[in-house]
């Protein structure tokens, strides 16, 4: 995705996240399920497999992603682009919790900073 569109996506996602509370309370019932996922670590194939098996996020198909979206794998940016786009479309049905790999120092150590620099040359 061209850097201009990535920047627009990041700015809009930031705006939406700033409006959301720091703690999200979710409840479910037998009639309304939530898929909980964690530790994608830049592995796009894992995210696509989750969506293939469980369906795409929607009002009827809610998701919680428990952090560690980035680092280690080679497709962290693509994962963020997909998750942020779904967050903007379904802000009440897709929830993103920050993990320890969504930290500046972890990004430097485990590869996300290098991936961003390589894909979007400054």
Automatic annotation (TrEMBL):
Similarity comment: family membership: Belongs to the PPP phosphatase family.
Cofactors, names only: Mn(2+)
SMART domains: PP2Ac
Family matches, as PANTHER family: SERINE/THREONINE-PROTEIN PHOSPHATASE 5-RELATED (PTHR45668), SERINE_THREONINE-PROTEIN PHOSPHATASE WITH EF-HANDS 1 (PTHR45668:SF1)
Annotated organism of origin: Fregata magnificens (Magnificent frigatebird)
Catalyzed reactions per annotation: O-phospho-L-threonyl-[protein] + H2O = L-threonyl-[protein] + phosphate
InterPro entries referenced in this protein's UniProt entry, alphabetically: Calcineurin-like_PHP, Metallo-depent_PP-like, PPP_phosphatase, Ser/Thr-sp_prot-phosphatase
Protein name: Serine/threonine-protein phosphatase
Domain spans labelled Serine/threonine specific protein phosphatases: 97-102
EC number(s) from the headed UniProt entry: 3.1.3.16
Enzyme class: hydrolase
Listed GO MF terms: metal ion binding; protein serine/threonine phosphatase activity
Keywords assigned: Hydrolase, Manganese, Metal-binding
């Amino acid at each position: 995705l061209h850097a201009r569109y990535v920047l627009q996506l990041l700015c809009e996602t930031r705006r939406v996240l700033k409006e959301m509370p720091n703690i999200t309370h979710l409840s479910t019932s037998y009639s309304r399920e939530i898929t909980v996922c964690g530790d994608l670590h830049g592995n796009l194939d894992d995210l696509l497999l989750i969506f293939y098996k469980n369906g795409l996020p929607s009002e009827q198909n809610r998701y919680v992603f428990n952090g560690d979206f980035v680092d280690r794998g080679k497709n962290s940016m693509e994962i963020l682009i997909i998750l942020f786009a779904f967050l903007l479309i379904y802000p009440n049905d897709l929830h993103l919790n920050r993990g320890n790999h969504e930290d500046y120092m972890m990004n430097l150590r485990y590869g996300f900073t290098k991936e961003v620099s390589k894909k979007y040359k400054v």
